[in-house]
Amino acid sequence: MKKILLILLLLLMSLSCTSKSADNYHIISNHKVDGYDIYEYNHNDFFCKTYYEDIYYSDSLYNYGFSFYGCAADMTFFIKQGNEYIYIQDALELGFITLESLLPELEKLERHPEEISSEEADYYWLDFYINHKVVYAYAGGECNQTGNETFIIDGVEYYYSARGCLLENILYMRNNNEYVPVSSLLAEGNIDGQYLIPLLKEK
Predict the structure, then answer these.
(1) How confident is the model over 87-92, as a mean pLDDT?
(2) I want to staple 64 with a disulfide (CB 3.0 to 4.6 A). Which of 28, 38, 57, 146 is the partner?
(3) Burial annotation 149-158 (CB, 10 A radius, 16+ → b, else e)
(4) Which residues, 6+ apart, have CB-to-CB distance to 65 below 8 Å?
């Protein structure tokens, strides 16, 4: 009997965290964003208690996005186009809304970059986001190297400094499970350099 009850409980938990209903979408925006309301999908409060952040912009001190509780880091914030709910990041990429219009609706959230260890060289999480993806710095380790990586954005020269066992590039983002230099993404037009500037220093 206990086994049956446990199975039923697990099924109920699974349904509570995966099933979606239009009744669970609620408007949270104070103002229209390019003509659209922002909706939050409310995850079941009883079972889904893990804290998550959905980040869309970073400056030198803070991240800007939405925080929520859920079973997983699932899509939670949407606009509504006709009868279809469109995830905020998709809405940005498709041009339904702009980041500039969205910013007033975002929460200011503390950045918590990973501490770079002097014992191990690795890709360290900087808790800094561009296009919904985080930027990493390859640094750390016992090598006594200090280096700069230079970026030219709109004709202005900026740099990022790091210490440790350094590679040719310092800043990276993950793409298809691989670490790709930020400089390559900039050169290919995959990211806008304006959103990298808060992480850099001007020469």
Answers:
(1) 95
(2) 57
(3) bebebeeeeb
(4) 53, 54, 55, 56, 57, 106, 107, 109, 129
Rounded to the nearest angstrom, the gap between the alpha carbon of residue 2 and the centroid of all alpha carbons in its chain is 42
pTM of the model: 0.83
- Residue appearing with tokens 């910013």: 103
191 near 50, Cβ under 8 Å?
no
Amino acid at 5: L
Indicate left, alpha or beta for 131 from its phi (over 0: left) and psi (-120 to 50: alpha): left
CA of 137: how far to CAs of 157, 162, 194, in Å? 19, 8, 18
Rounded to the nearest angstrom, the gap between the alpha carbon of residue 23 and the centroid of all alpha carbons in its chain is: 27
Q: Is the pLDDT of residue 7 over 70?
A: no
